[in-house]
Specification:
Order of helices and strands: EEHHHEEHEEEHEHEHEHEHEHHHEEEHHH
Helix content: 40-55%
Distance between the termini: 37 Å
Strand order of the largest sheet: 9-8-7-10-11-12-13-14-15
Mean pLDDT: 92
Oligomer: single chain
Low-confidence stretches: 1-5
């Protein structure tokens, strides 16, 4: 690898006869290990020429040198070589390679492949952003018009009454972050519903949110006796966000069941609330306006699958859960997936590893609930929420670096992410 100015180059040369031998002895096994389905189709259409295979192989090696890791940490299939209508090769990078490209500020990689009878040569050129600043972040145009401009004659009731339900002893930070995120996303009124024992703490932590408490029999978490208070508090709310710091037991499962049965407006369900209903997921069918925001472990519990199965088939299981329960599914992780029961699918492009920190998911709950409360359709609120959340994380990492980012750093960047989206 050689770096010069704003370019990083990588080059690789492959002996074509070596590839011919591999193809004659173990072609299918070699294809399965090295190439994606699109690449295999391209090779097949070329007549399985050894020169074509050697060129693609060299290209992957050259690109791995631009990224700076070599093959290993970045997998062969994370680097995909595709061709436009004129046959020009271009590069798709996924997985760990995509993360490293972000870290290096690599905007794009250009590729040139050439071969003759004995050798194939590939040269890759990575284009580096001039600097790591917010101006180097490109916004997807589709999001610019999703959030309407505010009207001059509006008031706090115009922008939604959001109820955040959560918290338990030792877990006050989660509902705090979700509530603050909803406020910083633009909600007019946010009500934070917590067990009685937490009321004094939350009233001190939260200044702009309205704190409401429910009977907890002195336990510091919701009990069956909390239900009547909760149902009374939420009856005039436009949307609920449930789960941050909620806790898991039979009593809280009962609370979730009764809310889903008695509240017929939109609900964003996250964290412990999802873990509660994983023992009886069919209760999701009681409400037709649900967004769930699981990480892979939570979706695995909900569907009775292993985490490995979910991670290996993220798009499939996102769509499966969405269609099975008639809900919007937000499967968190690298390239968060948003799926709707109508077949809509969005794979997010914002965010970074610095967001793998406690409280990050609570922020997302508040952001999505806020957008729903402001009148966005559920699918639009979910995908805009995920995009905005990831962008706030990207802005935070520009200042703090990925190792130093915590949830409150992301929280402070939410208004700036919205401002950048709106242009």
């Amino acid at each position: 690898m050689k770096e010069k100015g704003n370019l990083i180059s990588g080059i690789d040369i492959v002996n074509v006869n070596r590839i011919r031998k591999i193809l004659s002895e173990k072609r299918n096994r070699f294809y399965d290990k090295i190439f994606t389905e699109k690449e295999i189709e391209y090779i097949r259409n070329s007549g399985h020429k050894a020169t074509t295979v050697a060129g693609l192989f060299a290209a992957k090696e050259a690109i791995s040198k631009v990224i700076g890791t070599g093959i290993g940490f970045v997998r062969w299939k994370d680097i995909e070589i595709v061709h436009d209508d004129n046959g020009k090769p271009y590069v798709n990078v996924a997985g760990n390679g995509n993360e490293i490209m972000r870290e290096l500020c690599l905007d794009s990689i250009e590729l040139s492949i050439s071969h003759e009878e004995d050798y194939a040569v590939a040269i890759a050129i990575g284009h580096v952003s001039d600097s790591k600043d917010s101006d180097s972040i490109n916004i997807e145009e589709a999001f610019r018009t999703l959030l309407p401009k505010r009207k001059l004659d509006s008031h706090k009731g115009t922008y939604g009454r959001v109820g955040i339900i959560g918290g338990s002893k030792g877990m006050t930070g989660a509902p705090y972050l979700a509530s603050q995120a909803a406020l910083k996303t633009g909600s007019g009124l946010v009500y934070t519903v917590v067990p009685n024992l937490l009321d004094p703490i939350m009233s001190i932590k939260l200044t702009e949110s309205i704190v409401k408490s429910a009977e907890d029999n002195g336990k510091g978490h919701f009990t069956r006796d909390s239900l009547s208070d909760i149902l009374r508090i939420i009856e005039d709310k436009d949307v609920l966000g449930i789960g941050p710091g909620f806790g898991v037991d039979d009593e809280r499962l009962y609370i979730m069941e009764q809310i889903l049965i008695n509240y017929n407006k939109p609900i964003v369900i996250d964290a412990d609330a999802l873990n509660c209903i994983s023992t009886n997921p069919d209760i999701l069918l009681h409400n037709k306006s649900i967004i769930i925001t699981p990480h892979p472990g939570e979706l695995a519990r909900l569907l009775g699958k292993s985490i490995e199965e979910i991670q290996e088939n993220r798009i499939f299981y996102s769509k499966y859960a969405s269609e099975k329960y008639n809900i919007i599914v937000v499967l968190k992780g690298l390239n968060t997936i948003i799926a709707s029961p109508r077949g809509d699918l969005y794979v997010n492009t914002t965010g970074n590893p610095g967001m793998a920190t406690g409280g990050s998911g609570d922020l997302l709950t508040g952001i999505i609930a806020s957008f729903v409360g402001q009148g966005l359709k559920l699918y639009d609120a979910a995908r805009l929420g995920v995009y905005c959340h990831g962008l706030a994380g990207d802005l935070a990492s520009l200042d703090k670096g990925e190792y130093g980012v915590i949830a409150t750093d992301v929280l402070e960047e939410i208004p700036y992410s919205i401002k950048k989206i709106q242009g």
